[in-house]
Amino acid sequence: MSKTPDLTDRLIRQKSAPELFSKGQSDYEAGNVTAVTLRGNLINAEVIGNAVQPYRVQVGFDQGSLTSATCSCAYDAEWCEHIVATLFVVMRQPEIIQERPTLEQLIGQLNLLELQELVQNLVNQNPGLLDEIDCYITLNPELKISNQPAKNHRSSPINSVPFRQQARDILYEGMRYFENLDGEEDPVTEELLDLIDNVQGLIEIGETYNALIVLEAIASACAADWDRVEQYGIDSDEIVIALDEAIAEAILSDSLSSSEVEQWRSRLEILQEEWSTEFPLSLESLTQGWDDPDLVAALNGTITEPEIKEESLTNYSPDLGLIRLRILDLQERYQEYLNLAKAKGKMKQYLTMLGSLGRTAEAMEAAENQMKTMEEALSLGQTLHSNGEVRKALEVGRMGLKLLGNCQYELASWTADLAQELGNAEVEMEARQLAFCYNPTSADYFRLKELNGENWSNIQPDLLKSLRQHTSWGTTEVKADIFLSEGLIDEAIASVKGLGSYHIDLVHRVMDAAIPERPDWVIETARPFAEAILDRKKSESYNQAIAWLKKVRAAYIQKDQWDRWKTYRQELLQTHARKHKFRGMLEDRRLD
Questions:
Q1: Half-sphere exposure of 122 (CA within 13 A, CB side)
Q2: 252: enclosing H helix or E strand
Q3: How far is CA 214 from the centre of its chain?
Q4: In sequence order, what DSSP letters do the residues of 494-555 get, joined into one string?
Q5: pLDDT value at position 291?
């Protein structure tokens, strides 16, 4: 049998609540775990519980370590009792696990005819599978074994029923999720966005009208049942915007007749009324199409300055301009793309397309004269870099550092790394110092120290000042690392003040450095942590309490107060006399 994951009681306790650990152990001892199989790196089992059907558990592992553990029950916060029970079988009775072929191995034994027969039998047993197969094959046309070009979308209208049903299933499963578990996740929004994103793949293969039909089916399902979903606090805005953008793209990607335009306008207006929402991009795309005079002029390049405005749509992203650019790119209409991007003032897209097309000289000239934001510089720089224009990319990155924008750290860090790659220490120092000011990291600090050499004393005060001004929790470890490296013990102590046991390693590091100079702080901080653990009576956490007490002991020794440590140690032994495990650990000779 293949090696199963290495497990211990301690690991299982860490991943499950105490009551669930106990229940899972009872389920295991009662023999409630059945049908345990091993297929490759997956262990499957059924656990008899309170439901009519057994709960299905699946455990994944790799190289002896667990990678996943799921159960069909509603509990999702930690490992449920059914997962615990299954893991007890894996840990204590691996000999009862049946090793079976993986899905890949099973399918590999069948020829095409046998595989078709298998799928047909499975669908006969579970008719609902047909809709899932229909959706999957529709959205993955490359799976179809055919050398013939796709039929015209008008001659082969898609069946939208499976997609409507899939959207309804997402809504209803989401409602069941919220009924059974008060979780913070939002599976409804996440899964609907994935479904909409998958449908957009139809546009990329030219099935634009079918994409429109499917998107309407999804929107219709949402409109019919969203009032029920809304009761669970799920907002529809993100879904509506995604649908609006996708429908607009499908409309603009197709060649709708005038009668079809009116037909779809009517459908969308009905959807808006049913759902009490709006699809402004979609309706505007029906109105404008590709025949708007200003748009035609822009595509032809006769409008040289940004003149086209869609002020009513400014709250939506992307606007119709970006959708049009995506379509032009997909259709390889690159000059029209450039003309429209320039006319619309979409400089990031304009510059990036020039770079992608290898028109580097034009891109550099436009960057020098028209580039306005860091985002534009980063996008162009990355494109030039991917095209092998590494030095031009660095030049663009350096230009971007002087511009306004909201990607300061990303651009500065990217430019610094590129400069390091090219051996340009001057640009690297400039960019890395900016990166550190925007988002301090230990790596940037020590790299700057290495680069500046004898000039370090001139730049160090500014870096430390910048570091002190950052108050976000993400800089705590950075501050501790840097302050400790510079011997600034008091500032290192201040950086970890108020941290809990979750940051135990970081606090211990600061304590080790602080013992020679600030032993009182070590004692005042470590003692409460140790005592709180002992008061909770969690024997599995006694190791942590001992780790804190070792710091206390070292600090008392530093203060030459051995007697006070011995007195405190004796008090702990008396107070927790019934905690035999703890007493044995504290009575260790290394703590006497």
A1: 11
A2: helix 237-253
A3: 27
A4: HHHTT--GGGHHHHHHHHHHHTTT-HHHHHHHHHHHHHHHHHHT-GGGHHHHHHHHHHHHHH
A5: 87
Chain segment 487-515, per-residue pLDDT in tens: 999 999 999 988 876 788 899 999 999 99
- Smallest CA-to-CA distance from 186 within 146, 118, 236 is with 236
Phi, psi (rounded to 5 degrees) for 42: -125, 130
Backbone angles phi, psi at 252, to 5 degrees: -75, -20
* Three-state secondary-structure class, residue 399: helix
CB atoms within 10 A of CB 489: 18
Whole-number Å distance between alpha carbons of 200 and 139: 9
Q: Which H or E run includes 213? A: helix 208-229
> Taking 70 as the threshold, does the pLDDT of residue 67 lie above it?
yes
* pLDDT, position 150: 41
DSSP 149-205: PPPPTTTS----HHHHHHHHHHHHHHHHHHHH---S--HHHHHHHHHHHHHHHHHHT
Confidence of residue 77 (pLDDT cuts 50, 70, 90): low
How are strands ordered across the β-sheet holding 98-99?
Answer: 65-71, 55-62, 42-47, 33-39, 98-99
Residue 405 makes CB contacts below 8 A (sequence gap 6+) with 373, 374, 375, 377, 411
Give the Cα-Cα-Cα angle 314, 319, 321 (nearest 5 degrees): 125
Per-residue buried b or exposed e for 506-533, using 16+ beta carbons within 10 Å of the residue's own CB: bbbbbbebbbeebbebbbebbbebbbeb
Q: Look at residue 143 and tell me whether its pLDDT is greater than 70.
A: no
Q: Which helix (H) or strand (E) holds 99?
A: strand 98-99
The more confident residue out of 471 and 404 is 404
Q: Which of 76-85, 123-132, 249-258, 311-320 is the most confident on average?
A: 249-258
Residue with tokens 């600030």, as numbered in its chain: 518
146 falls in which pLDDT band (50, 70, 90)?
A: very low
DSSP assignment string, 29-81: HTT-EEEEEEETTEEEEEE--SSSSPEEEEEEEETTEEEEEEESSS--SS--H
How far is residue 340's CA from residue 322's CA, in Å, rounded to a whole number? 10
**Cα–Cα distance for residue pair 260/266, rounded to 1 Å:** 10
* Nearest alpha carbon to residue 238 among 311, 316, 173: 316
**Per-residue model confidence (pLDDT) at position 304:** 59
Residue 534 in this model has a pLDDT that exceeds 70:
yes
Average pLDDT over residues 96-123: 83
Q: What average pLDDT does this structure show over 277-301?
A: 91
Please give the backbone phi and psi of residue 8, each rounded to the nearest 5 degrees, phi first: -140, 160
Task: Report the distance separating Cα 148 and Cα 488, nearest Å.
Answer: 72
Token pair in block for residue 534? 């002992």
